[in-house]
Amino acid sequence: MTSVLRSVVTGVGGYLPERVVTNDDLAKFVDTSDEWIVERTGIRQRHQVADDQPVSDLAVAAARRALAAAGRTPDDVDLIIVATTTADLTFPSVATIVQRKLGCPVGIAFDVQAVCSGFVYALSVADGFTARGRSKCALVIGAETMTRLMDWTDRGTCVLFGDGAGAVVVEPMAGEGTTADRGLLGFALRADGTKQDLLYVDGGPSTNGQVGKLRMQGNQVFRHAVVNISEAVTAAAADAGIEIASVDWFVPHQANLRILQGVARRLGIDEHKVITTLDQHANTSAASIPLALDQGVRDGRIKPGQMLLLEAMGGGLTWGACVLRL
Ligand code: UT7
């Protein structure tokens, strides 16, 4: 057995804005119904930021909880990676704003933009620092204010998304190079830029100078989801050297209940092993995986030492999966 440095998740935290918007609330101004939304997506409600609440505030709240869970303070943090597609400003990065608001010392801070897959991408990037001894205490955050990108006249998209943030603390620990080690054990990351038109925002600083609104051909994205995600999950499990059957908890990106169930069925994952927050949070893009992780840890289902499988797919298209032992 060889001694290797592993990137271990030592704390998890989440934050949801106070305001809750139900499906019936949306049906008051857009041609939809609670019945349609629940049946086609599994969503029952979502949280929405206050008008004066930037995404960095959500990220900071989640980060504080993750640090407390890890027994760390902002003083310990030397790396901050924020996965987001809804930054406070075009620049600087949300990560540097979080660093300032938390009062962390000078270190490394930047954002990762891979839309709904952002948290899986960000974990992989963090692993590149932590497992090489270049970070002793990293904050990896998924934070989004997706409701700010909604076209509230488009019933095909505006009912699907919500706001929130989730964070994890990642620290280096010596392992033995086996699947019994705690830490990030395997990844598979994918992108296919030819599918851009299926899911994008129609604005940006170097095109029309606008923030833009989210545009999606939902049924087309749906068609790719189950196949793409299943392939990435299988590849991540192979990268980690584990059997999918040995996974304790499946913690997927929360886009649509039918996608979660389809992936689980295809991979032979028992439905009782799937953490689902979609009904309460809707799709919070890069925040959805760490929020689901936080939910599972706080309600006592997910325990230290267990094997977790994370996966996501989003705009780009991007998708990916990660296997980790908590
Ligand atoms: O996280 C990023 C990745 N995103 C995703 O993974 C999203 C993937 N896609 C989906 O989740 C689903 O495709 C949706 C939930 C977006 C849509 O469900 P669908 O079963 O694919 O419906 P559809 O788009 O094929 O539309 C079916 C019908 C249409 O009416 P007609 O043309 O059949 O008369 C839509 O106009 O449903 C209608 N519709 C709605 N009706 C009531 C679409 N949105 C709504 C709505 N309320 N909110």
Q: What does this entry look like structurally?
A:
With 326 residues, the protein is α/β, with parallel strands linked by helices. The chain has two domains: 4-175, 3-Layer(aba) Sandwich (Peroxisomal Thiolase, Chain A, domain 1); 183-325, Thiolase/Chalcone synthase (Peroxisomal Thiolase, Chain A, domain 1, 3-Layer(aba) Sandwich), CATH 3.40.47. Helices cover 31% and strands 26% of the residues. The protein has helices at 23-27, 34-41, 55-70, 94-102, 118-130, 218-240, 257-267, 278-281, 288-298; strands spanning 4-15, 19-22, 45-48, 79-83, 108-112, 138-145, 163-175, 183-191, 199-201, 214-216, 249-252, 307-314, 318-325. The strands form four sheets. It has a five-stranded mixed β-sheet with strand order 1-7-6-4-5, with helices on both faces. Strand 12 (307-314) and strand 13 (318-325) form a beta hairpin. Helix 3 crosses helix 4 (94-102) and helix 6 runs parallel beside helix 7 (257-267). The two termini are 21 Å apart. The model has no long low-confidence stretch (mean pLDDT 97). Oxa(dethia)-CoA binds next to helix 2, helix 6 and strand 12.
